[in-house]
Amino acid sequence: MTSDDTLTICTWLRRCLKCGGLELHAASEVGRGSGCRVWDCDLRTDCGQTRAVLKLYAPGFDDYSNLGPVDTARKHALALAEMPAHRVPTPRLLGFARNANKAALVMERVVREPWRPEIPVQAARVLARLHTISLSSLSKDLSGLIRRSRPNRDRVGCVPGEPPEPPATVVHGDYFSTNILPVEAGVVVVDWDLLALGDPMWDLGFLLEADRGTDAAEGAAVVAAYEAFRPVNKQRLDWHRECWREFWRRRDAQAKRR
User: Is residue 114 part of a domain?
Assistant: First the structure.
């Protein structure tokens, strides 16, 4: 880690946490997948010692929601603060700050446990609860940002014959194993940058097909767990799943050509 990185991390930690006496003991960069910089930090402030994750949004990040860095970071921070009240577990928000056209948030570091066979079923139950959340039950700020966000589903591509679009719900937009952390009590959902209004079957199809290797029995258990909380539009779910299968067929064909 460079001295410039250390300065950046400490500056944004102070802005977000608003605690004095900050000492950064260690930091390691853990991701740039979305064009954001993310660090796992071991620090001490006047408020105590903690392990935290700092996520920095700056111009040039992958702006799939079309909100820009500041509003995307603000939407993420608000989601972390508000979703647990709806029984959708997230990391605890520790702080948020903005400066000009950049913004950052700090959240608790969640220790991921090993993936267990029951995790997709637990994730399906959480997803169903997410899809029952009404915009009116969220803060005016968060509901407005969700309304303005572009849904993520077009990134995969489509196959012909799309069924009629159902009523939109709040959707996560990137709901698969990378963003579903197993913990002792079940799962914690991370990465809320793509929160928007959209087709709930897109999220469920993502859970079923974005991670390859789900067999028929596992898939049926996931769908049943979701359906225990809210209806499944089987026609649209099958269509989204076929879109994902076509996506993976194209990926495999490209890999063979290379």
Answer: no
DSSP 193: T
The domain in which residue 32 lies consists of: 3-108
Same domain flag for 35 and 133: no
Distance CA 115, CA 43 (A): 28
Co-location of 212 and 103 in the same domain: no
Is 63 found in the same domain as 8?
A: yes
Q: What angle do CA 38, 44, 50 make, to 5 degrees?
A: 60
Distance CA 149, CA 84 (A): 21
Q: Which amino acid is at 61?
A: F
List Cα–Cα distances, 99 to 44, 57, 69, 102, 108, in angstroms.
23, 11, 11, 5, 22
Question: pLDDT tens track of the chain, all 258 residues?
Answer: 688 899 999 999 999 998 878 999 999 999 777 889 999 999 998 878 789 999 999 999 999 999 999 999 999 999 999 999 999 999 999 999 999 999 999 999 999 999 999 999 999 999 999 999 999 999 999 999 999 999 887 667 788 889 998 899 999 999 999 999 999 999 999 999 999 999 999 999 999 999 988 899 999 999 999 999 999 999 999 999 999 999 999 999 998 887
Q: How far is CA 174 from CA 50, 120, 155, 171, 257, in A?
A: 28, 14, 11, 9, 28
Specify whether 99 is located in the same domain as 132.
no
Whole-prediction pTM: 0.94
Residues 152 and 231 in one domain: yes
Distance between CA atoms of residues 74 and 68, nearest Å:
10
